[in-house]
C-alpha cells in the first residue's frame, strides 16, 4: 500500500467501537495525523488530537461528527507523545469538553519544562546545540521561531506509567511504554479488541525519527531504547496496528522486526564509514556522510538539523556498544571508531 494524500482520506469506522479521523498537518509532507476515537459509556476517549491549526481543528470536529460524536462529549485525550502533530489540539479539546489530557510522565515533564521556558531561550538552545554539533553558520536558525516550531502543547492533567489502564469505562486500554521517538512515547493496547495504537513507534511504510537532544548528550541512548521497545512490542504478538500516520496494518510484530533490522543495518554502515576515516568526525560531518531520503546538499537547514539529531542517536548507540569513542575537546565533540 502507498500513502494517500490527505484529500483522499475520510473518517472510518474500524469496528469494535473505534473510529479513525484524519487531521491535516498543513505544510508538512506527512500530510495528516490519524486521530482515533474509542467509544465508552462515559463518552469517547481520543488517542492523540492533531496539529494546532484552524484547518486541523475543523477536520477533527467535523470528522468526529461523521462518527456521531460531538466534540463536547469527549471524555479524555490520551497523547501518545508530546509532538505537536499529536498533542497540539489536546488543549482545544479540553476547552470544548472539559476532557482530561493524559500522557506518560516522562513526556509530561518535558511539556512542563517547555511551557516554563521563553521562546527566545528555546531558540538560543537550538543555535548553541547546532554549533556544538559542527553546523556551519548558514545552517543556523536566525530567530526563535526560525525552525517553524509551534508553541508547546497543553500540560497533562494525568500522568501515565507503563502498565496503567486508561480511564476508559467498559474497555481495557493498557499503556505500553515505548521510549525512543520521545522519552515518554506510549503505545496503547486495546485488550478487548486485540489492537495496538502505535503512535509513531511502529509505522507501516516509514520509520520514526529517533534523535538525541542536545546532540552531544552522553547520559541517554534513545536509539537503544527504541530498539528494546520494538522487541517488547513484537512480543505482544500479531496484533492489528492502528498507527498515527499512513494506514492501519495487520501484524505489528512483523513490522517491528523489519524496523529493528533497518536500524541495525544503518548502524553497521555507519560504523564502517567511521572506520574508514583516520580523523575523528563531528556530528554534523557524520550526518553529511549518511544516507537520507534525498542528498545532503538538497536538505534544507531544518531537515539537516533533524538528520544531525538522528546521526547523534546512532553514534551514541555505537558508543554504548563499545565500538566507538567520544573525543571531547574545544566546543565540538567528535567521534572515532575503535580498532577491531
From TrEMBL:
Residues 133-163 are annotated as: Disordered. InterPro entries: Metallo-B-lactamas, Sec-metab_biosynth-thioest. Coiled coil: none annotated. This is MBL fold metallo-hydrolase. Residues 32-245 form the Metallo-beta-lactamase domain. It comes from Nonomuraea harbinensis. Pfam families: Lactamase_B.
